[in-house]
Amino acid sequence: MHMDFNTLRKNMVDSQLKPNKIVNKNLIDAFLRVPREIFLSKKIINQSYIDDNIDLTKNRYMLNPMIISRLIQALNVKQNDTILVLGSNVGYSSVILSYLCNTVIGIEAIKSFYEFSTSVLMKLDVNNVAIIKGKIEYGFPDQHPYDNILIEGGVNFVPEGILNQLADNGKLVTV
Q1: How many whole angstroms separate alpha carbon 89 and alpha carbon 106?
Q2: pLDDT value at position 94?
Q3: CA nearest neighbour of 95 among 30, 25, 26, 174
Q4: How far apart are CA 137 and CA 97, in angstroms?
Q5: What is the mean pLDDT of the chain?
Q6: Is the dihedral of CA 123, 116, 3, 20 positive or negative?
Q7: What is the dihedral sign for C-alpha 128, 134, 137, 139?
């Protein structure tokens, strides 16, 4: 069975994002342009546009499009922002953010996710995103301060060392 991913992508935006108060036009355009299906393995590609988290590995998910769009919209990203994505996963949110800001730095601890997301960035010709393999809880102090930090997933608390990497008036969002 061949799935029409372009139609599914448009349906995701129209039925999952817009009814849930996603109004930022640039953000909506990014969701329309980024092919979510290329971030998933053949085995789960048919889940690309479901209205739910997608299980990638033990305790790691591609977040529900509505949740990730609301987190990103809450950041109120500006064109010249530098954004840190912690737990950048397979790179989907980082690529969405690449349409909205100047620079995205993703930190990913899982080697296969790091390698996969790096190859997707090349495939999509995205050159304002860098994925770095490292411990998520350390962030990436080399490039701080960050205008925004997105923690991709749920956390119980945010380490002081991460908060110290935010610019004055910077925003951090997480589940």
Answers
A1: 8
A2: 97
A3: 30
A4: 21
A5: 93
A6: negative
A7: negative
Q: Which of 50-59, 69-78, 156-165, 166-175 has the lowest mean pLDDT?
A: 50-59
pLDDT digits (tens, 9 = 90+) for 57-73: 878 888 899 999 999 99
Q: What is the pLDDT of residue 3?
A: 75
Q: Tell me the residue ranges of DSSP E strands in 11-86.
A: 54-57, 60-62, 82-86
End-to-end CA distance of the chain: 35
Other CB atoms closer than 10 Å to residue 114's CB: what's the count? 21
**Buried b or exposed e, range 92-109, using 16+ CB within 10 angstroms:** bbbbbbbbbbebbbbbbb
Q: Do the strands 146-151 and 129-133 form a parallel or antiparallel pair, or are they unpaired?
A: unpaired
Alpha helices in the chain, H assignment, sequence order: 5-12, 25-33, 65-75, 92-98, 111-123, 160-163
The 3-state DSSP class for residue 167 equals strand
- Cβ contact 63:53 at 8 Å: yes
